[in-house]
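Records of this kind hold a single protein each, on a pair of labelled lines. With that in mind, the following record should read easily:
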Amino acid sequence: METSVSLASYLLQSKAIIIDPANPFTWASGWHSPIYCDNRKTLSYPEIRSYIRDAFIAQIRKKFDKPDMIAGVATGAIAHAALVAESMGLPMLYVRSAKKSHGLGNQIEGDINMGKKVIVVEDLVSTGGSSLKAVSALKNAGLEVLGMTAIFTYGFPLATENFKKAGVILHTLGNYHDLIEEAVEIGYIQSEDMETLRKWREDPAGWKV
């Protein structure tokens, strides 16, 4: 809880997360949303990126078996995975959403040692679709995926179900509930916005202003 609340403050402070119910954003999926998340913004702030790195390491050590490697999901989590791997003294990989159409046609970059235990680092989990594609690519390459750790999740029931079906453990540093509570606490949004944000999270695909 303490990590999630502190992270929420950092994400709002750095504008990695913007909340604007009156002027919704359009996601690549076509969904309309009162919230937008781009955790790459955190990399511009040394204090914040170091906090995220240390929180990832603490969570990995607490929640998972000791990994042999760290894998970042392209592109948003590559830098964060590199910071974690460097601090833990571990090799690193990163995974694209699909194989390259040129060169060697790689989907995974880095030296792949079959049978090694890997923790996947992600920046954001929405429905879980792209995150789980990365996990599948690593498994298909012969790696043992211990689970995934992400900076933030919207906590959609669909994502929970997708990770459950895939048999993949997911832990996140922050979550939607704590973010919204912190946003009200610091005056970023008004308490009356809470109902709009709650309704959106219940039905993001069907939500409209």
Summary: The helical segments are 2-13, 46-63, 78-88, 129-140, 157-166, 176-185, 193-202. The chain has seven helices and ten strands. The mean pLDDT is 95.
